[in-house]
């Protein structure tokens, strides 16, 4: 009897929070999507604010990062209604010729602190099943924190009305987390960061060979390359500044994708002087594991067959990812050279 009374009181408390308390919900948006939501002369975002009586704003644009954070603050139903309207804006952009915009499926990626994500999913996935059943939306969560934060992504895929309903249920999960006394102020929210500072001015992909595009680094003008090659007793050829190939690595073999699709996997086997292996691998494999994670490539070290002074690495993944891994390895070797020279 006491348990039943407690559940009734808890439900009443959650209902009160949903109707009376203001909450802030966040979503990760591409720059292109941000422009759609703001609209010409900020007309669209002003209309959204007026229709739902909510506050809407975006994080600042960060150099090198294609995402911004959308903030919507207001009562739970008003916030849910706003995201339903945003879903319609996205639907009109992606399917302008659709007969019924309300039947077009779109995806919105929400940001929540880890404890709230746990409440959204529920024990054994019970809560997320309830959300899916009530809204007819597909709900997916990320398994990892976003960089520098305790936030995780919760992706909602469905028609605008489904996203409206699912958003309300997630607001309910947020208030349940608060009602259970969990201090969300200790959580670290995700903030978009600047992209990596490049030592070259531009990266160009040569698409002439679609099965295995070549990555070139475009340095600043007037670069002269007069360093001795690790694979020859002769000085390197002076290449045009706008077509410098990746240094420090020698590609031994390439296994192209059978379909020629840039998303299909290829394998490249490269060699480099073995004296730099410790830097490429990193202490206890930290650097090479970072490469695997950041490029989504399968990277394997192979024992040299006859030349003990050369290390061999096999890299498998989509062409662009493989070339990115090659560039990072070449940069790591270049840093090692400078340290040895000093």
From TrEMBL:
CDD domains: KH-I, KH-I_Rnc1_rpt1. It holds the Pfam family KH_1. Gene3D superfamilies: K Homology domain, type 1. It comes from the Eukaryota. The keyword ATP-binding does not apply. The keyword Cell membrane does not apply. SUPFAM superfamilies: Eukaryotic type KH-domain (KH-domain type I). Keywords: Repeat, RNA-binding. Residues 21-91, 104-175, 264-334 form the K Homology domain. One of its GO terms (molecular function) is RNA binding. This is K Homology domain-containing protein. It comes from Naumovozyma castellii. The lineage of its organism: Eukaryota, Fungi, Dikarya, Ascomycota, Saccharomycotina.
């Amino acid at each position: 009897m006491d348990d039943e009374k407690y559940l009734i009181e808890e439900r009443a408390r959650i209902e009160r929070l949903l109707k009376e308390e203001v909450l802030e919900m966040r979503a990760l948006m591409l720059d292109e999507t941000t422009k759609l939501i703001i609209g010409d002369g900020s007309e669209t975002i002003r209309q959204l604010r007026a229709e739902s009586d909510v506050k809407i704003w975006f994080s600042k644009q960060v150099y090198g990062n294609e995402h911004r954070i959308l903030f919507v603050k207001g009562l739970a139903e008003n916030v849910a209604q706003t995201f339903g309207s945003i879903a319609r804006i996205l639907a009109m952009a992606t399917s302008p010729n659709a007969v019924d915009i309300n039947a077009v499926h779109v995806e919105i990626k929400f940001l929540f602190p880890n404890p709230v994500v746990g409440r959204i999913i529920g024990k054994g996935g019970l809560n997320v099943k309830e959300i899916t059943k009530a809204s007819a939306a597909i709900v997916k969560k990320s398994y990892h924190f976003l960089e520098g934060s305790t936030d995780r992504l919760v992706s909602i895929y469905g028609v605008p009305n489904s996203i409206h309903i699912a958003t309300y249920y997630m607001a309910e999960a947020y208030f349940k987390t608060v009602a259970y006394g969990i201090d969300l102020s200790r959580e670290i929210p995700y903030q978009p960061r600047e992209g990596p500072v490049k030592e070259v001015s531009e990266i160009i992909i040569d698409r002439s060979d679609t099965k295995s595009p070549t990555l070139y680094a475009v340095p600043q003008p007037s670069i002269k390359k007069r360093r001795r090659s690790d694979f020859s007793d002769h000085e390197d050829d002076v290449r045009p500044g706008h077509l410098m190939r990746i240094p420090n690595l020698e590609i031994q073999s390439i296994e192209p994708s059978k379909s020629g699709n840039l998303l299909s996997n290829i394998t490249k086997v490269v060699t480099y002087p073995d004296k730099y292996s410790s830097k490429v691998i990193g202490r206890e494999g930290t650097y090479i594991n970072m490469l695997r994670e950041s490029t989504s490539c399968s990277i394997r070290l192979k024992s040299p067959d006859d030349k003990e002074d050369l290390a061999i690495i096999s890299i498998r993944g989509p062409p662009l990812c493989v070339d990115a891994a090659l560039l990072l390895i070449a940069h790591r070797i270049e840093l090692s050279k400078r340290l040895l020279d000093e």
